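This is your field. Please look over both lines of this record.
***
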Amino acid sequence: MDEPVGLALLTRTHALPAARGVLKPAASLAPLVWFKTGGPAQWLFEPQDADDLSDFLAQLDPDMPVMALGLGSNLIVRDGGVPGVVVRLGKPFAKVERQDETTLVCGAGASGILVSSTARDAGIAGLEFLRSIPGTVGGFVRMNGGAYGRETADILLECELVLRSGEQVTLLNRDLAYSYRHSNLTDGAIVVSATFRGHPGESAAIQAEMDRIAAAREESQPLRSKTGGSTFKNPEGHKAWQLVDEAGCRGLAIGGAQVSEKHTNFLLNTGGATSTDIEALGEEVRRRVREKSGIDLEWEIQRVGMVQ
């Protein structure tokens, strides 16, 4: 039987630049994303540091696609896999350091829990909301991640990037043209660190706010399921979950994918879902909401790769 075109592309050998980090061909991505579905990356690159990433990208064929992968919490990797190089920022990019009384410098691979906990220990308030966002600093910066009335645009001073060309640049908050769950960062540009500013606070009060946020999230969201976080952006003046619910989609299923009954803006892999099931379910939800309310829901979850 002939090999499928997509798989042939992913397994074909390409000459890549030398790197100090780890570079793997045909690397499985399903274990690295929250849905636990999807095909492999043509190449998976875990750079040793920002200079390693910069040198690698500068020498990489300009036609080779590049994308960054954080915790994989807000991502559907399609079943045909991801062509090009997937860059995963691991432990070298997961450090959080206090710069002064109100400021933290955070590696792009650091989780929201680590950032908020470090801020608490340093007596820096205003970053508690990061405790509730499943993801890493790089994703927060790119998507203007937010929750509970706060967003990245409220706390970001500047960020360090490696562009697709390999050039390392620093951008200020105003350079990102932030709007709701959006920045103007181009495809292939990879955030490697960010500087966040809060305000002085008491560690006990900061912890109490973090506990409140964690409890609210536990009560309302299906945290112990294979999910991808919030599926659709909230349209202006509306709540996505309410539109989904009113369209009769609570519990709706396609294959092994299901709309959560606990929070209808979450899709679940109930055990045997494919990425095709999950994306098809999302599109069916969008169709039903459009038919019911006339509102065209926008995906908040990023969808990457090739359909199998």
